[in-house]
Amino acid sequence: MRQQPFQSLRGIQYEDLQKLKGKLEQEASENLARPMVYTLVTSAQEWLSKSFGQDANIENSEDEETEKDDIIVPHGEPVTVETFLAWRERFEAELALE
Question: Quick check: 10 and 55 in contact, CB under 8 A?
């Protein structure tokens, strides 16, 4: 398998990318035969955070904002047996009129 050269998307120097690659290869060899994607991602985020400050947390804050936007606030009347039966009677009465 041929390896592709690293290319920085956020202005990280090639030498730093090589250090990160080495750290991830070490983590991968320590975690052979175990699920490791989460471990590798966490390790890379920690390294980036230590090396470059807040850069690694930018995407996390964006994810948190999207999660806040996805929260559904309940509205309307809560459904109970009594409210459902009352609704069903009104609904069946409407169907009878049609």
Answer: yes
Predicted structure pTM score: 0.39
Question: If we measure between CA atoms, which residue out of 8, 32, 38, 33 comes closest to residue 20?
Answer: 8
Percentage helix, strand, coil for the chain under 3-state DSSP, each rounded to 5: 70, 0, 30
User: Rounded to the nearest 5 degrees, what angle is found at the Cα of 57, between the Cα atoms of 4 and 14?
Assistant: 30
- Tell me the mean pLDDT in the region 51-55: 68
Encode 75-87: b = buried (16+ Cβ within 10 Å), e = exposed.
eeeeeeeeeeeee
Residue that the structure tokens 């989460």 belong to: 38
CA distances from 85 to 48, 95, 96 (A): 58, 15, 16
pLDDT interval class at 56 (50, 70, 90): very low
